[in-house]
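Weekly structure sync, notes
Attendees: PL (lead), two postdocs, one rotation student
Agenda item 3: pending single-chain targets
PL asked that the sequence for the first pending target be pasted directly into the notes so everyone works from the same version. It is reproduced below exactly as submitted, 345 residues in total.
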Amino acid sequence: MAGAGASTGSAPATLSADQLSQPPAPPIGPAPEEDPAFNQVKGGIKAVGADKRAHPTAGSRAQQAQNAAAPPSDDVAGQAKAAEVDTMDAQEAGSFDKKAFIAAVKTAIEAKSPKTLKEADDYAKSGKAGEVKGDVKGLVGQGKQGQAKDIETATAAEPDTSKAVAKPVTPMARENQSAPPAIPGGGAAPKPAPPEQLNLEAGKQQANQEMSDAQVSEEQLAQSNEPDFQKALSDKQTAAAHADSAPGEYRKQEQDVIGQNKAQAAAETQAGMADMHGTKAGALAKLVADKANTKSKDEAKRAEVTARVQATYSGQAQDRVGQERDRLVREKPSRKPQEHRRGRS
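Predicted structure, written out during the meeting:
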């Protein structure tokens, strides 16, 4: 029974006597989702993916670009002029006192009117008719100037920059991303087979037990001179040697295969991380370019609006006074001096 003892001594020490007597367990390993190391790799990849997909809203970044847009150098002056244009538009012409004007014209005419028949006969030669005309014309001019004065005053007023609000400029935040974390991708590789799957001791023990029950030893079989017995002994010894060596040989091959799988899993994991990082970097580069473009467009539009306000202010100041004067020139007194004098006579 020495052979049996020797065979038993070469068995894996991690198995109990009961386990050694059992045939090799079927190769049923845990499912990937039940493997903590695999789940760690899987969870790490999902976390990185979620981080790379996360991004602020487009509206917030567009607002950031607009906040960073610098106003034109004459923005404050433009605001003041825009307000001044509104003031000019709202300014009405001065009021015209029609009754006072008629009374003044009447007084001027009466002052130059003939008081006697002789003065009436000499009126045409006296030049008083021309004086009346000049006086009335002067009154008309005074009335027109009074009406245009408010508009001219509003137009001549300097724009008030104290009410303008300078646009604040907030620099755009940098668009950076953190470096991809190191994920132990090797955890996704297959795991070593448990010892019970490599246990071949049961066959050796069974053969030793059968010989013990038959009260036959290996020495007796070797000295039997019976070819069948001797072949059976040789087969038994070959099987026992295989049972002793096969697990070690398997472990060596297993170690090589698992090492290759770990290296491959680690490389693929890191390649995936680098790919996600590169994709995010490309998206951030496009975002930076879009923000710069939005900022430039905003600045150009602000400059355009300010230039338009400046032009409007200059044109409005000239047109408003000119239009009011043209309107006053077109207006005429309701009655001519001669008509008033004839009516009086």
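Discussion points:
- The chain has 13 helices and no strands.
- Residues 227-330 form the longest helix (104 residues).
Action: rotation student to compare against the earlier draft before next sync.
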